Amino acid sequence: MAASARKQNKKTKHTDSSTDLKAFDFNNLEEKKGSGSDDDTRDADISKAMQTKRKRLEVLTKNSLKGSTQKLEQMWKTQQNQRQKLTQDYSQQVLSVLQQWESDVQKSEEQEEKLNNLFRQQQKLFQQARVVQNQKMKTIKDLYEQFVKNMEEMEKSHESFLQGTQMELRKEMALLQKKIMMDTQQQEMATVRKSLQSMLF
């Protein structure tokens, strides 16, 4: 912007100087018949006008440069403030995301620790239940073996008891049969005797 202002100032200077030169030439053409003192006066007026215009151009150039510099500084400050604000907002967002991420990580670690503790407790309970189950199975097995053994012994005792009872019954039957035979024989003998006595007497 400063370079363009300088170029415009140079163009303005060149235009003004050429305009002044044309005016001067025109006056020279109209007043060629004038005296030499009038030429000197005109030269002095032209130089004063040129100096005045030069000063005016310098003032305008300085003012333009000053305004451009102020605008640039203001624009730079505005952009810097925008960059700082954007950086601050981004930093806050990133910090918030990082804090949330750390919180989530901590929560996940706590959950993982809780799950590990629960898993260890469940594993311990499962081991205890397995030990208890093995003990119960062993107790049931022992009871079953004892039951089978008792059944076998009871069957053996029943068989021996039946055998003894059968032997006793056989003995009693034999004795009873022998007694019955003896009684029958005695009755027959008595009947024979009576018949003989009746026949004899």
TrEMBL record:
Domain of life: Eukaryota
Record's keyword annotation contains Coiled coil: yes
Coiled coil: 98-157
Keyword check for Coiled coil: yes
Signal peptide start and end residues: none
Pfam families, A to Z: Cor1 (PF04803)
Keywords: Coiled coil
InterPro entries, per database record: XLR/SYCP3, XLR/SYCP3/FAM9_dom
Region (Disordered): 1-55
Domain XLR/SYCP3/FAM9: 48-179
Ranges of compositional bias, category Basic and acidic residues: 14-36
GO cellular component, one term: synaptonemal complex
GO biological process: meiotic cell cycle; spermatid development
PANTHER family per the UniProt record, alphabetical: XLR/SCP3/FAM9, XLR_SYCP3_FAM9 DOMAIN-CONTAINING PROTEIN
Family: Belongs to the XLR/SYCP3 family.
Name the record gives this protein: Synaptonemal complex protein 3
Organism annotation: Anabarilius grahami (Kanglang fish)
